[in-house]
């Protein structure tokens, strides 16, 4: 008899389904289910925008898997709108480079969001 994945709100256990997974460094990333191992009750997760060598197996009840819905807020941080960009206040500080909240994705580190984006 084939085992069935648990009913977890916001997570669909099927190949190609999207979710968020927490890596070994305790960071959450958008991910896709690549394989499902019904015997061992686990899923192979691929972190989007990362090499496949980082793919990881998670037990399907793992607390390190969660729905993807939280990512839409974070996307705003990667491409900040002008209102999220901090610029010098006057020309007297023009020698100071403007502070941007985004960091290049090529650095391999996803930028963190300012807390105010998460407050209602």
UniProtKB/TrEMBL annotation:
GO terms for cellular component: MLL1 complex; NSL complex. Keywords: Nucleus, Repeat. GO terms for biological process: regulation of transcription by RNA polymerase II. It comes from the Eukaryota. It is found in: Nucleus. Pfam families: MBT (PF02820). InterPro entries: Mbt, PHF20-like. This is PHD finger protein 20, b. It comes from Nothobranchius furzeri (Turquoise killifish).
């Amino acid at each position: 008899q084939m085992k069935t994945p648990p009913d977890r709100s916001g997570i669909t256990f099927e190949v190609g389904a999207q979710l968020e997974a927490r890596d070994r460094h305790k960071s959450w990333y958008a991910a896709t289910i690549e394989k499902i191992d019904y015997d061992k009750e686990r899923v192979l997760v691929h972190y989007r925008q990362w090499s496949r060598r980082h793919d990881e197996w998670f037990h399907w009840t793992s607390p390190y898997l969660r729905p993807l819905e939280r990512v839409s807020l974070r996307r705003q941080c990667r491409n900040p709108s002008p209102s999220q960009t901090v610029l010098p206040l006057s020309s007297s500080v023009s020698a100071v480079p403007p502070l941007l909240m985004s960091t290049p994705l090529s650095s391999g580190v996803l930028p963190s969001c300012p807390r105010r984006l998460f407050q209602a």
